[in-house]
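Action item from last week, closing it out:
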Amino acid sequence: MVKEAGETLVGQQRSPETTSGTAADQRHYLRVANVRDDALDLQDLATMSFSAEAREKYRLAEGDILLCEGQSRELVGRAAMYRSEPEELYFQNTLIRFRAHHAILPEFALIVFRAYQHSGVFSEIAKATTNIAHLGLRRFQELPFPLPPRITQEAIIDCARDVQTSLDSSLAAIESIISIAAELPGAARDLLILEGAAVGQAERLSTGTRITWKKAADVVAEDAPIVYGILQPGPDVDDGSGVPYVRGQDLQDGYIVQDQLRRTSASIAQRYQRSSLKQGDVLLGIIRSLRVAVVPPELSGANITQGTARLRPGSDVDSDYLAHWLSSSAAQEWLRSRLRGIDMPGLNLRDVREMPVPVRDLGSQRQISEALNEVTAALQGLIRDAQSAASRLRQMERELIVSFAFGEVANWITQETSGPETESLSSLILDRIKDSVSQVRRKPARPRRPNMNRSKRITLKPATTPEEVLAVLQQSHDPLEPEHLFRQLSLAESAVDSFYAALRELKQSGRLKEGRPNNTDVEISAVD
């Protein structure tokens, strides 16, 4: 059992005493946000007070393994090893520390625990409260633990690490491609539409073209002002008589996800005839996310909800051009700076109406739109292919780590290590795995440095958690606007929903306070 394989301990709990102790007792500690899969993120360490007795009890030693005690069900038990950097470090009670006995190599224990997490063993034994699953120290201690001979553990470790290095290198390269490709459409729109001009700046461009800046309210059709839609669409009407309506979450990558549209009754749609849609209308999400899409012909006559604004271009603005402008980095930044609120952050329609739009002749608009349509379609295809490849690699990683811990590879290694010739076993195992899994390419072998934490490549993250948000707020000396907090977390645009969900959870639990320095701005900070 785990309790026989090593010592287990839950970390120190945060309390008024530990958060208000003397400066001399303040120490850095790890929490759930710092423990990634097989890596510690040490860029944002929190501090609290540890007494002399607590420092002796909770100080980490090289080879200690940290597991997330409380986490979402699919991530509970996520594990990483402390490798003596920084030299002095402690841990919170949201983590369990496992310190292997002499018969167990820490690296082997880490492989076992990662296999338990990836195979669902931890999630099966965890107990859920609200949105958090708890592993439980006693339940963790009672789990079985494999105990092969030391030479077998060493062979498993060597082989698993070589394969893991190859997978990590491949994933890092793919994630870099995705991150760069995700930023390029906005940058391309800025480049082709603005040509270096600032938002609202009236000047002749290098091409001789002059941009005329108009408010969004002045570029829409006179008989179709900027509006949002149905306040209460009612229950979904699925008998064929319903009218489809578009929500903010139905806008994705410049198009409308039609197979998930809901339908309202014809009577409700009639009452909101002012917000009905026509081909070529441009839709802008105004609650939480600021996604943009152009209405296709098959959705003429559909409607929208209060979380979506409709802009029907007038005679001097092309629909695709307006959509590309609203999706540009410059326009998105302008809009994000005007989001208000935490529970349901959104734009006021007056802000949308005041949005500056760079207008030029229609021929130029259509040329720019055609070029941007090709660029964005190619980049979106690249991102989808890269995401698919990353998903396959992560699945391969999960399957391999389970196989190394107690599956076919572990059994094969055990048989091989029972013989007299084991000097080149690691390279032999790796060669055989490479033959069966052609996607994994191993770099030339080089000496490893087991006492160093593997550095994490920092890319824009697709989601965040309340713990990560709270950590940034606690480190800030001053209250932050939601937009600035979003940037400090290095989040991708797709993380908007999880970001505001985290803010709501923190507010509901009393760990976040909201301030309003004036009638429009919102500032947030951590509760002391």
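Closing note: The chain is about 40% helix and 15% strand.
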